[in-house]
Hints:
- This protein is an alpha+beta fold.
- The protein folds into 3 domains: 2-132, no CATH class; 216-497, Choline/Carnitine o-acyltransferase, domain 2 (Chloramphenicol Acetyltransferase, 2-Layer Sandwich), CATH 3.30.559.70; 499-604 and 636-722, Chloramphenicol acetyltransferase-like domain (Chloramphenicol Acetyltransferase, 2-Layer Sandwich), CATH 3.30.559.
- 45% of the residues lie in helices and 13% in strands.
- It is built from 21 helices and 19 strands.
- The strands form 4 sheets. Strands 1, 6, 7, 8, 9, 10, 11, 12 and 17 form a 9-stranded mixed β-sheet that branches.
- Helix 19 (609-622) crosses helix 20 (627-634).
- The chain is globular and about 90 Å long.
- Mean pLDDT is 86; it is low at 290-337.
- The active site is at residue 428.
- The chain crosses the membrane at residues 20-38, 66-88.
- It is a multi-pass membrane protein.
Amino acid sequence: LMNWLHVFVQNSLLTGVYPASPSSWLVVVVATIGTRYVKMDPSLGIIDYIRSAIPRSCMSFRSRTLLSATLFATGVWVTGILAVRYSLRALLCYHGWMFEPHGSTRIRTRIWATLVKIFSGRHPMLYSFQTCLPHLPVPSVEDTLHRYLESVRPLLNDLQYKRMEALTIQFKHQTAPRLQKYLLLKSWWATNYVSDWWEEYVYLRSRTPIMVNSNYYAMDLLYIIPSSVQAARAGNTVHAMLLYRRKLDREEIKPMMALKLVPMCSNQVERMFNTTRIPGLETGTVKQSALVYIYNKAVFVDCMLYSLSLVKLDILQKQKRIKIITSYIKYERKGSVRISLSCRIPWAKARSEFFSHGKNKISLTAIERAAFFMTLDDEEQAYDKENPTTLDSYAKSLLHGKCFDRWFDKSFTFIVFKNGKLGINTEHSWADAPVIGHLWEFVLATDCFELSYTESGHCKGEMNKKLPPPQRLQWDLPEECKEMIQQSYKVAKALADDVNFCCFPFMSFGKGMIKRFKTSPDAFIQIALQLAHFRDKGAFCLTYESSMTRLFRDGRTETVRSCTNETCAFVQAMLDTHKTDKERLSLFRKASEKHQYLYRLAMTGAGIDRHLFCLYVVSKFLGVHSPFLNQVLAEPWALSTSQTPQQQTSLFNLSKYPDYVSSGGGFGPVAEDGYGVSYIIVGEDLITFHISSKYSSPETDSHRFAKNIQQAMMDLKTLQESSRVKPKN
């Protein structure tokens, strides 16, 4: 505890004075005192004034002079720190660098980049830039409404568009000004005018099961399984997680930087460990345990088939490196019950009535205070090149498992399969995918390249034979509680069985070829998705692409509405046999440029949907009825997409280890008759897609959509190559 307090105080001091350092304070003090000895007064009389205010009876003239000079120097030092911080915040408000053409940088931006480097200091810690990050700006109502109408134009016929235009105009002149004033007022005192409402109303107040509907997953390496011994793989990766947690506690993880220059918010990282989503009848909460670190024993929850066991993994100090030995992991299956309470209201009632006292409270507290939840799964999962559908089963297992062998309320559930394959299931309210992705990259890289295994696949290190056996959690569940659990399980099982997954690695080409076409890889894929969706359903739809707003303090996500007028014009041209490739290519360029422009707007706080969402929340607070906002918030996202970030840590050298590529991750369908599509662009020649839909919808089929995506990708490639073929004379 004392060691942790020492680290906490030290980190707080270093972060509090950044970009300065305690040694710089000493330099300023010594320099100021030195000027007094050469009979100079840099304070212009302030030091003498401070000295005169100090009672003479307390100390000598010389001591009072030293103290007053020290106080003056400290004031100058603190003022300098504040000046640098406010200057850096002002610099970070500039986002013109994002909108400049690729390969050309204006002089103004170069000067800006130089100043940012100067004011950013050296060797920042994880939270060094938090107070320097600008607040998320509130867009003007006029800009938001203009972009909204533009985004829905390709989805509505003329009559529908005129009706929507009339609602927009009415809202703009009658309702919006009042709502906007309250939103601006909030933005003045809140660090972020969106994030707290987004967490509460989108996640915590949702009453649907978070399994499938909210939680998302990440897979292991696509081709590699470093060890097929389940316990060994669990031991090494848990050890890697604790190494990451140690770095996190000590703030030794470097803050994420856009273009290695612009800092991004690190706030979400704080709740990675010892965090649980607590259900409530009306709204839930995210609770982080006060437990900071366990030095001699790490406590995890092992949820096997029909069992909940408290597993203690030995941590040995050897050669100044912690070793985790997992030989004591045991599977206990007899006399257990299935814990499945995914529905929020029944779970909240059961937690209050049956898990608030006695054995149940002790066991539940052990789970909720744990660093994370670990499942040793009794199934085998892996990618088989001869049978690509194995990825579908892998994805479904990570997303929902058997519905009772994942603790979906934990910040994340770490899953180790019988054959050593890994995965992770993440609760969504506390953080977004890039945050857990950073941890996941560190864990996989540390496991493969630093910890490694013996030739037989076991952990390196020696076992402590004095370890006590695992302690099984005790439960006392009355029949009424078991009945609630069984009913919840039926709901969860039906939800899980309805998920139709198709995951496939697209290997025909990757970002290397796309960049040779002078096109953004993300824009290329998004346009391909629009072409695939139109072929799949014969219509365009409202499309969600997730973008981050972490350039601002406490920033989370914003929506990029990828179905634009330009993209729709291109898709229609691709299906029009009378259009030439030259015409199609011209439309493709316009669609790509428009998509990149919208993505940049979203990242710089000028998106549409978060602003409209907050205006809607204000309207509910004030009791203001708005047909326009009701219509906007009711529109379903029939195509929800997201790009999985990768190589955030630069720990993987794909040129040296080309087989160590990530499989990415995915999520469940957002709309009943829609698709959820996640993709990860790995290296130069691989893009892995994760597609989800519902069997119950006659309009969707994940495998059919996957074929349409592959065809669309190849068609775009053929189109791009046609422009590079010189006509014969």
